[in-house]
Design a protein that fits this description.
CATH topology of the largest domain in chain A: Serine Threonine Protein Phosphatase 5, Tetratricopeptide repeat
Oligomer: heterodimer
Number of helices of chain B: 5
Number of strands of chain B: 8
CATH architecture of chain B: 3-Layer(aba) Sandwich
Bound molecules: guanosine-5'-triphosphate, magnesium ion
Distance between the termini of chain B: 19 Å
Radius of gyration of chain A: 29 Å
Number of domains of chain B: 1
Order of helices and strands of chain B: EEHEEEHEHEHEH
CATH topology of chain B: Rossmann fold
Number of strands of chain A: 7
């Protein structure tokens, strides 16, 4: 094939690829044509030809940039949101199907609508916790990288309302805490059942024998908890029974301490299920070592970032 | 996972068009929407992004009328082919009853075809489905580009790359003129309904 023909073929290919939106492929072909044209001198209108091709390459670059910058989760019409909700719920159970529909809306980035749906499901006992957790997810997804105020506000509202049980609030708190931690945001998350918000007004009041008191006693207020650097414990069951584990604390919020555990530590992770209580844990702080039991309050797989595949594990210190 | 309403004698099933980015999935559905007016039971919904690329999915509802005493409704979806929308592809695939895999005949897309087929296999596996068992039809699209002098793969090469083990029915196509589009869809419907009849023991 003579050179002229070769250039012509390359340009024709590049144009078709460009029209089809195969930009990478088009650029390669234009580039090859440019190389050939540059390598020979006796091409007619050489500079004009090169300029023309460069303009096409520039146009491709612009299209690529637009694609890269395009909104991943644009807001779509209510009618299409309805369609998503209907078509992406699969369960035969109506309530469960509603939850699935709302989760699909969130997955397609329709956070505001999803929030409304979750909010309407929170009154249903069987869905309450999942709905609440997903609301926190939506708030976090909508927030900018360094701001989680809406999620924190939502959590605080639940603390004051009679919607979620103390146990559920603990799980929500641990969930939110892990996410804030991953985002590098520090926020004060009052501990459920501890009634700290009320305590401000009750300083110095004689303790009355109400049931609130026993609940409050279970929790150590944030400011009383020393900084813990590491823990050591043995498992009380499973194949690794009695093997000593030492974990370094990666984050602490009041009496909940978090660890990052590599995903490959399966035997340890399998034994530490949420709700599992570990007796005789040694807590190492810079001023003292003390022993207490601890409750696994959350275990979340880290889905992105350098720690991807590891687990964030929360332990709640039960009683000193 | 078709929805089978025994009382109302209704079946609703889902066919998904899968394949690499820009292979012509949306073009298939657009042609079906234009040309099968009688069977189309509602609007085609496309949620796309910059450059006409599918962002979430395309959706096209069809009614096939009574088959073996059942009112059969078929819903066609396309997935977004761009690599970065992997989680959306998986989401759209959920509950699928039959798959049309659209391959791009352009030689430069050879690898992309194979990667997309692997991706399909993987995503089906995550729903406990096997690419060998699901009703599946392959379509080799953009056959017209040979006439414009563009390098496209011969059918044998596509068969070798993609269909050596699967041995699924396969058809050449030119999606924007409609060539092969109806044949592909009909074959997929046929396989899907046969499969459903067996698994739901309907009409037996
Ligand atoms: N020449 C030719 N072009 C086609 C054919 N089918 C589709 N195209 C073109 O290929 C490009 C991509 O087509 P789409 O249908 O949007 O591809 P898609 O698979 O839906 O792409 P994504 O949504 O990004 O995954 C468009 O420019 C179509 O016009 C065909 O048979 N021949
Ligand atoms: Mg498309």
């Amino acid at each position: 094939m003579d050179v002229k023909e070769q250039i012509k073929v390359l340009l024709r290919e590049a144009e078709v690829y460009q029209r089809q939106g195969l930009y990478g492929e088009a650029k390669i072909k234009y580039g090859k044509a440019v190389d050939i044209i540059r390598s020979i001198e006796r091409v007619k209108n050489r500079e004009q030809l090169l300029e023309g091709i460069q303009a096409k390459i520039d146009a491709i670059e612009q299209s690529v940039q637009k694609i890269i910058k395009a909104e991943m989760h644009p807001k779509i019409s209510a009618r299409i949101q309805d369609l998503i909700q209907e078509k992406f719920s699969f369960s035969g159970d109506r309530d469960q199907a509603s939850l699935e529909g709302a989760i699909a809306l969130a997955k397609f980035g329709q956070y505001e609508r999803a929030l409304k749906e979750f909010d309407s499901l929170i009154g249903k006992d069987a869905l309450r916790f999942e709905a609440a957790k997903n609301m926190i997810r939506c708030h976090l997804a909508m927030a900018s990288a360094d701001n989680a105020d809406a999620a924190v506000d939502q959590y605080r509202q639940w603390l004051d309302a009679d919607i979620l049980s103390v146990e559920e609030l603990h799980r929500i708190r641990a969930f939110l805490d892990t996410h804030l931690h991953q985002k590098g945001i520090s926020a004060f998350l009052p501990i459920p059942g501890a009634k700290e918000t009320v305590a401000e007004f009750e300083v110095g009041m004689p303790v009355s024998g109400t049931s609130d008191e026993t609940e409050a006693d279970l929790e150590t207020p944030d400011e009383d908890m020393v900084d813990i650097n590491a823990v050591s414990f043995a498992l009380d069951h499973g194949p690794l029974k009695e093997k000593k584990f030492e974990l370094e604390v990666s984050f602490q919020s009041g009496n909940t301490i978090s660890f990052i555990i590599p995903g490959k530590e399966t035997s340890l992770l399998d034994n530490l299920t949420v709700g599992h209580k570990i007796g005789d844990v040694q807590f190492f702080s810079s001023i003292a070592i003390f022993e207490a039991s601890a409750l696994v309050s959350a275990k979340t797989e880290i889905k992105s970032g350098p720690k991807q595949g590891s687990f964030s594990l929360d332990l709640k210190i039960m009683s000193a | 996972m078709a929805i089978f309403n025994l009382q109302k004698r209704e079946i609703e099933c889902k066919i998904v068009y899968y394949g690499p980015g820009r292979c012509g999935k949306t073009t298939n559905l657009e042609y079906i929407f234009k040309s099968f007016k009688k069977q189309i039971s509602g609007d085609m919904v496309s949620i796309d992004t910059e450059g006409d690329r599918t962002l979430f999915f395309d959706f096209l509802p069809m009614g096939l009328g009574q088959i073996k005493g059942c009112d059969v409704r078929m819903q066609l979806y396309t997935v977004p082919g761009q690599v970065k929308y992997s989680s959306t592809r998986k989401l759209v695939l959920r509950g699928v009853d039959g798959v049309v895999f659209v391959a791009d005949s352009l030689e430069i897309r050879r690898n992309k075809n194979m990667l997309a087929l692997k991706d399909l296999e993987q995503n089906l596996k995550e729903y406990n489905m096997s690419i060998f068992k699901i009703p599946l039809v392959l379509q080799y699209n953009k056959r017209d580009l040979a006439e414009q002098g563009l390098p496209i793969m011969p059918i044998e090469m596509l068969e070798h790359d993609l269909n050596r083990q699967l041995k699924a029915p396969s058809f050449p196509a030119v999606a924007f003129t409609g060539e092969g589009v109806g044949t592909t869809l009909k074959e997929c419907l046929k396989l899907t309904l046969k499969h459903l009849q067996k698994s739901l023991q309907w009409g037996q």
